[in-house]
Amino acid sequence: VLLPSLQSALPFLDLHGTPRLEFHQSVFDELREKLLERVSAIALEGKVEERYKKLEDLLEKSFSLVKMPSIQPVVMCVMKHLPKVPEKKLKLVMADKDLYKACAVEVKRQIWQDNQALFGDEVSPLLKQYILEKENVLFSNDISVLHNFFSPSPKTRRQGEVVQKLTQMIGKNVKLYDMVLQFLRTLFLRTRNVHYCTLRAELLMSLHDLEISEIINVDPCHKFTWCLDACIREKFVDNKRARELQGFLDGVKKGQEQVLGDLSMILCDPFAINTLALSTIRHLQDLVEQDTLPRESPDLLLLLRMLSLGQGAWDMIDSQVFKEPKMEAELITKFLPMLMSFVVDDRTFNVDQKLPSEEKGPVPYPSTIPEAFTKFLQENRIACEVGLYYILHITKQRNKNAFLRLLPALVETFSDLAFSDIFLHLLTGNLTLLGEEFALEEFCTSLFDGFFLTACSRKENVHRHVLRLLLHLHHKVAPAKLESLQKALDPTKQSGEAVKELYNQLTEKLELRKPSPAEVTETPSMELPLPTVPTPASR
């Protein structure tokens, strides 16, 4: 460092035993920090053209040193602040793995927007992680009616690692946002996995939270998703928001029907379906109170319209025919009144129980179900979804009679919806409220033999959910029934690791509950007659 004033000060370093290399290194680091600060300052000062001209000149002079570890941060900083890095430099960065890894996300965005395959490689592990996280929640060993898959609020979910990383990778780049949406559509079509629909909505709302107007202003689904997000937060669609949502659906203009594909995907998000179905059940109960038929409730018809659009998402995107699915009249004129009649059955039964019993004895609970109900659950997707949510509703109310009455209808449902992970996750949670009933032979036979075990052998996910339930409630089940269930649930060679692991956990728990042989032999000693103690003579 050729400074005249420095020469006389250098011997001080020698007195302290500081090598010259260490001194020069610290000066170099200090200068580099100053240079980085200056680059960041240049990026903000003066006219736009001038500042970028300065940065481009700086990049031209420094780029040849980009592979030098000590200079690399400066070069990367210059590139980061350039809205458009020269094509030639981007290609050199892309061709070198180490350089690509070291460059800022702002530079990577410029590389990705013209290289879909490379962007796909970066996004793919995140999407896999996202699906895995959702499945882990559905199969969690913590079974609770209060904390389930749908408990976290939309805002909490958007703070998840994957959504945050994707949001950062996209930045304000519309092209990258479109690419991610295309990946999600393709994967949804390939796998039919509805969690991709959740991610589609979460990503848009994450950009909404950050007020990235460049993207949210061009996504035609933004306002619809924002309104629906508020409904999901409340787990209910109120009248005001229902009218807003209807306005968006009715406002799809001729020639813009393609937006229905995106809206249907947002409505296919399980969190949206859950909100719409819960609102439908609530509306049906209100209609019973008001002595009104479903066809006379515009709010209910709108909920069904949105459920129908959401459930038809896969078919619409697959066929590329963008029009709302037609709703069957019988759903409104026959199926929903039938559900309302079940509500009436419950209420009349409850009233009957309170009346003084006459000679004819107590009124039995209706045990048969109309054949049409079972048929609707098998053939109509919307009826099946609403029917399943009604069954979840009665289970949550601890209504054992209604549950056992409708349970046989679940063995065969539209595309096996009753054996889907989301339904079984919610059902197992709600069944914890009926814990005391598991001691009864009749209840266990209906639930396990009549429902769960009919699908265990052909559907591994059902096997897992039954084991989850038993891990939680095994101490409530009668010992003889528990033994036969243990045999029935024994994993086969084809069973996956998850099933075997759960089964082993259950076996361990049951072993711990068995009394030890020592205890068994000692018990008779408790029944020995007590030695007689002579009573003191009365005075």
Automatic annotation (TrEMBL):
Residues 513-539 are annotated as: Disordered. It comes from Buceros rhinoceros silvestris. This is Negative elongation factor B. GO terms for biological process: negative regulation of transcription elongation by RNA polymerase II. It holds the Pfam family COBRA1. Keywords: Elongation factor, Protein biosynthesis. Transmembrane segments: none annotated. The keyword Protein biosynthesis applies. GO terms for cellular component: NELF complex. It comes from the Eukaryota. The keyword Protein biosynthesis applies. One of its GO terms (molecular function) is translation elongation factor activity. PANTHER family: NEGATIVE ELONGATION FACTOR B, NEGATIVE ELONGATION FACTOR COMPLEX MEMBER B.
